[in-house]
Design goal:
- The complex is a heterodimer of chains A (139) and B (132).
- Chain A is α+β, with helices and mostly antiparallel strands.
- Chain A has one domain: Histidine kinase-like ATPase, C-terminal domain (Heat Shock Protein 90, 2-Layer Sandwich).
- Chain A is built from 4 helices and 5 strands; from the N terminus they run βααββααββ.
- Chain B has 5 helices and 5 strands.
- Chain B has one domain: Transcription Regulator spoIIAA (2-Layer Sandwich), CATH 3.30.750.24.
- The longest helix of chain B is centred in the N-terminal third of the chain and has 18 residues.
- The interface between A and B is medium-sized, with 26 and 23 residues.
């Protein structure tokens, strides 16, 4: 099996609303570089937008680790959103469509999950929340 | 502060979003548009999003709000120019944009708005005649 080294690994900081746009644009650039199609690119950056906004609104901002990864020969984009906010008490509830504690529509987490290939969330009350997503090039 | 321009075309307002929307900018647009509908008595609002490569749940909510508020002020809202990838993503995200009219492009959007108020096509002339 062909092993490709990860050539992109960077940290994007999300501290204010404009950072969400910067984050989206950078992810789009990287996804385009991998040859990801426009529909998958759009799904990915929409998920990024939801998660980065969540991080800003509920987590008080945080960092996004952006990496390119491979599975066999297929490249993908992996993102880890990490905040040191209050955390999510009931992840099951937060993953339900329409559930929100804020001013949003409650589409952020479950919507983002539907838009990416792999999604995992880990949260500890009082410590913060980490969301990891991967979008494969053809995924 | 950055603002998205709103153009008046007859009894309609035209907004072409050419920049990436961050939340504050979207909220400002919502406010400005509703003020403009009220001030001008516009009967329709046409929002061109052809330059947008992304519409997430927050922007979707803003578009829905604009349509709902305009409707209360007796104006219809049409969103035009949505890119196919954005449409696919919106549906998967679970955001059907209900209550908002959509059309393929500005031309069809204008036609849709005009068709929805056929009895008023001559209303400028009617108003003029009323003065005599």
């Amino acid at each position: 099996m062909l092993t490709t080294t990860t050539n992109i690994r960077e940290i994007l900081s999300v501290r204010q609303e404009r950072d969400v746009v910067i984050c989206r644009n950078r992810v789009k650039e990287v996804a385009a570089k991998l040859g990801m199609g426009i529909v998958n690119q759009t799904k990915l950056i929409t998920a990024v937008s939801e998660l980065a906004r969540n991080m800003l609104i509920y987590g008080g901002g945080g960092n996004v680790l952006l990496q390119t990864v491979t599975r066999g020969r297929e490249p993908g984009v992996q993102l880890i959103f990490e905040d040191k906010g209050p955390g999510i008490a009931d992840i099951k509830k937060a993953m339900q469509d329409g559930f929100t504690t804020g001013k949003s529509m409650g589409m952020g987490l479950p919507g983002a999950k539907r838009l990416v290939s792999e999604f995992s969330i880990d949260s500890t009350v009082g410590k913060g929340t980490t969301v990891k997503i991967i979008k494969w090039k053809n995924g | 502060m950055e603002r998205i321009p709103i153009l008046k075309m007859g009894k309609f307002l035209l907004v072409t979003i050419q920049v990436d929307l961050y939340d504050r900018l979207a909220l400002t647009l919502e406010e400005d548009l509703i003020q403009m509908v009220h001030k001008t008595g516009a009967r329709g609002v046409l929002i061109d999003i052809s330059a947008l490569s992304i519409v997430d749940s927050f922007m979707g909510k803003i578009i829905g709000n604009i349509a709902a508020m305009s409707s209360i002020l007796d104006a219809e809202t049409v969103v035009v120019g949505m890119q196919p990838a954005v449409a696919i993503t919106l549906i998967e995200l679970g955001l059907p944009l209900s209550g908002v009219h959509t059309a393929l492009n500005v031309e069809r959007g204008m036609a849709l708005l005009a068709a929805r108020m056929p009895d008023e096509t001559d209303d400028i002339d009617v108003d003029d005649n009323d003065e005599y």
